[in-house]
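Review this fold:
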Amino acid sequence: MREISYEEQTVKSGNPLARFAHRTRMTMAIGLVTQSCAKSGTVVDFGAGPGLFLHELGEARPDVTLVGHDPYMAPTFPEVEYAESLDTVEAQSVDVLTAFEVCEHLYSSELDALLDDAARILKPSGAFILSVPIMYGLAIAPKVSNWMIRSHSFKSEYSPAELLKAMVGIPVSRPQNPRTTHKGFDFRELRKIVSQRFVIDAVH
C-alpha cells in the first residue's frame, strides 16, 4: 500500500472539502500567530510534522525564529530548527507555542506534560494556540466520509449508532490508543483541562 504523505492528507488532499478545510485552517493559523508574535520573536510548533506550517509562517514573517518538534517526522525545510524535545527549549523564551491537530492524539499524561512545558517555556506575554478537530455535531459526517475516501474503504470506525450519538453531541467512547484516530475526541473536555492552567482569550 502506498504511503500517503502529510501534504496529501491535508493541504493537497484528494477530497476537495478536506483540502479546503486544511488550507483555511492554515491561513487562519498563520494570521493568529502573526498577530500574537512580537517582532523577531520565537515560535515553537509542537507536532510540527515536516514543518509545512512553520515554512508558510516564515514566508509571512521572515523575522521570526522557527522551531519545530515532532518525534515521528523528519524536517524538510532548512529554515526550521528542530528541538528533540520541549525540555531543550529555554524557560520563558517563546513568544508563541502552537499545537495544531495534535492534542487529540495524546494520552492524558502526554497532554499534562505539554501543558507543563507550555507554562515553562512561554514568555509572560506569550500565547499558546491550539487547534483540534470537532468530532461532534454535523461536522462529524464529512470527517468520517473523508476518512473512508482516503482509506478506500466503506467501513467506518463509528457504528451507525455512534455516528448518530456524535451528531447530537452525545459522548462516544474513545479507543485505548489515540495515536491514529479522532474517534470520540471531545474538544469540550480539552477546553476544560486547558482552562484550569491558562486563560482562554478566544475560541474560533
Summary: The helical segments are 6-9, 16-36, 52-60, 108-121, 140-150, 160-167, 187-195. The chain has two domains: 6-132, 135-186. Residues 16-36 form the longest helix (21 residues).
